[in-house]
Amino acid sequence: MRLHARLVAFVSGLGVLLSTVGATGGSTQESHIGSLTGHAAAGKKLYRRYCIGCHGPDGDGAGENAQWIDPKPRDFTLAVFKCRSTPTGTLPTDEDLFNAMTRGFVTTNMPQWLPLTGQNRADLVAYIKTFSPKWKTLKPGAPITVPPEPALTIESVLRGRQLYQKMECWKCHGPRGHADGPSAATLTDNKDLPIRPYDFSTGSRFMCGATNRDLYKIFMTGLDGTPMPSFADDIKPADGWDLVHFLRTMQPLKTPELAIWSAWLASHANELKPIGPPGSGQ
Amino acid sequence: MRWLKKSGRGAQVSWWVSAIVTAVCLTAAMVLSGGRSKAYTAYSLAVHKTASIPAFARKYGLPCSACHTAWPELNAFGQRFRDNGYQLMNDRDSPIWQNPSYIPVTFRMTPNLHRESATKQPVDAVPGDSTSGLVSRTLTQSGFDLSGMDLWTAGTLYKNISFVLLPSSDNTGAFHFEAAFVRFDNLFNNRWVNFKVGKFELDNLVSEKRFLFLSGNGGAYQSYHFLPAGDVNDFGLGDNQIGAELSGHSDNSYTRYGIAVLSSTDGEVNLPTNQSYDAYLTLSHAVDAGALGVERLGAYAYLGRRPTYFQTSVGVPIPGTGTGNKAFYRIGLSGDFFFGDFELLPFVMHASDNAYLATATAANVALPPGVRDAQWNSGFVEAHYYVNPQFVLTGRWETVRMSQQADPATPNDFGNIDAYSGGVRWYPIMFSRAGLSWHTEVSAVRTRGSAFSPTDNVWTTSLFSGLDFDF
After folding, report:
1. Could you tell me the CATH superfamily of domain B34-470?
2. Residue A126 contacts by C-beta under 8 Å, 6 or more apart in sequence?
3. pLDDT tens-digit profile of A15-51?
4. How many other CB atoms are found less than 10 A from the CB of residue B37?
5. Beta-carbon separation of A115 and B294 below 8 A
6. Contacts of A203 in chain B (CB under 8 A)
7. What CA–CA distance (Å, rounded) separates B454 from B444?
8. Cβ distance B182 to B168 under 8 Å?
9. Looking at the structure, do residues A128 and A166 belong to the same domain, yes or no?
10. In terms of pTM, does the model score above 0.95?
11. Residues B171 and B145: beta-carbon distance below 8 Å
């Protein structure tokens, strides 16, 4: 009888232990990216290997390296993500997280995890979703519709330039896109940490991708957690493409936008009003 | 483990527990295997053969495990980092982004306790009396020792211009340059065009510089260094060579190639042989196998030449005047296959040395009758099981088989080798600042033929336990 009682106690204890583990729910989280299904249990091991140093064991961005990193690692417990295809204030899709992980963030310490298998990255996405209860109570937003890109014309670039002035992009990004606008030094993120606007003159890639389509999505969805707002309610889709065409002229690349802009500028420079406060701008 | 603990007191306790456990276990191992001391050894840990660079971890804020399956072996992410010229390809690669206090230097050394034993060694019957005749003895030695030291500095001189400088010492402190090169990355903005000049590791899919074995018998691949008895070729596939390499890779480094032109000196400086050049070609491709991991298969071919005699002055060879070059080659396949946490590294090679090299015959004299090229085949299978990023079990079986002796009178199996290694590496400390591994390994090598009989099997064995630290 005593043996039986011990056995019952052991099984009961094991049941309690398993139910406790199950109650955390973490290991059952999944992600779905195309034909891939990611599993949090598998992602946990990978997270420990690749991510924990910066994002921390609890996903709160407080890994051992966080103190040395600027900008700080993402705090997954807040479930606020910059690069999304979904409207501002909503959760990103699994594919958004997958793409961000694959692409990395060119202006931060977050590298491209492209060499990991797709399944590994899907598993990591699933595990990242265990850090915030929002993933249980909310659904990702519906991806915004990105209309086809219209033909590139000098008129489109000029309209984009007007929007850059009108929407006051220059206040943060600067008249020439050098991240030196009057507000640049005062910006903070959602954790009250200093944050810099993107400097168009320094790189070939943007925070959330390298294509015109990626750029369009950035200002139509905003970069949640940063001062960069969504302009989806303020400008029309066609205006968004105009802005894309203008912003491309600010990059140190031989883009078609820059070619058409430079050709026009050679004979029309004196027709332009400066961007931003008087005396500055291109 | 430190990794799973939150910051604060819990982390400190875990760190100390790990340190104490390490010390206790190491002491136990020392007690169990100590107490025997003899005079002879074939111990070859004088120079570290492996490389991992926590200076990079400090620069980029990544843990060792991001780039290494278990340091120093690279994983797919680390391979891409290396292929990109030690760059993550973000905006922070140029040294202008480095904190001025950042020190891009890495030290690696392994204080250790080891035991070496060799059977059927020729020993004077009466110690000190060279006329007493040779008898066969098993020689053993053991004790505390040091490894050689690596003093790495590597990184970027500018965006897309990278470098490595590796002064390396043996365990007496005698230094040489194990590696030193400058690499121009992504030339023409193309990742398929990278060019480096200097002394560097050959682009071997299975690296002997970044592997998980340290003991006297297990700390080198037999296949990479084997030469038939009497062969004067000095080439080792595992030796760093001096030359230039053109290489390239796909965006994820799943597809890679390398073409190198190398001085025929086996990495020795001052051009000790002559004006000859070797060539090394490598190609590998990997596939995404989902949950299993990244599976890679590669092919390689080394085509080389070595002089068979030198110009002389008063009968003394003049360095750098080697002539009568004769050819040799090494060709084969290798792989790196993952099955989740289990990794398998197969390697096969066919090798051939010209008859002149194999018999140490100068090319300006006639070969002995019947002599021909020496040929052999070799291969190994190495397995790793990653219990977690801080604990790995290792094993390896290796074989070398002569397929054609240069001298037909030599027994077919003379010089054949079978080698076995097994070990465990535990990383109680693995941060983005430094690393410590407790490495324990057992290795045994059986070689056909002794000083007494070509049919003898000579066994050399190693027991090794050391603290492999990398800062």
Report:
1. Porin (2.40.160.10)
2. A29, A30, A31, A38, A39, A40, A42, A43
3. 444 444 444 445 689 999 999 999 999 999 999 999 9
4. 10
5. yes
6. 91
7. 19
8. no
9. no
10. no
11. yes
